[in-house]
Specification:
By secondary structure, the protein is mainly alpha-helical. It has a single domain, classed as AF1531-like domain (DNA polymerase, domain 1). It is built from four helices and two strands; from the N terminus they run H-E-H-H-H-E. Strands 1-2 form a two-stranded parallel ribbon. The radius of gyration is 17 Å and the shape is elongated.
Length: 96
């Protein structure tokens, strides 16, 4: 029994580093439920506000642009920065 517990513990520790890389959320493609589930401090109402902002203003060019959404502050952005993306460079609007 003890060896089974040790084996499971070692397996858990070997998978742990992969967990941090698994969840990346593209704020330009994710729907409101995915945003609410994946962004700490963002519930369904705020997630819908992100989607509505994106529809009204086009895709986010940078993560900092999320600060323009009412209810998203610097703390929420910094807390989630490592798991958020604005997609591939070619998907973003280019400056004119």
């Amino acid at each position: 029994m003890k060896s089974l517990r040790n084996t499971l513990f070692v397996l858990f520790l070997s998978v742990l580093p992969l967990v941090g890389f698994a969840a990346s959320i593209d704020v330009n493609r994710a729907d409101a439920p995915a945003l609410a589930a994946g962004i700490a401090g963002v519930g369904p109402h705020l997630a819908e506000a992100i989607v509505q902002y994106r529809k009204a203003h086009g895709p986010f060019a940078s993560l900092e642009q999320l600060l323009q959404v009412k209810g998203i502050g610097p703390r929420v952005l910094e807390r989630n920065r490592d798991r958020l993306t604005v997609g591939r460079r070619e998907d973003r609007p280019q400056p004119k």
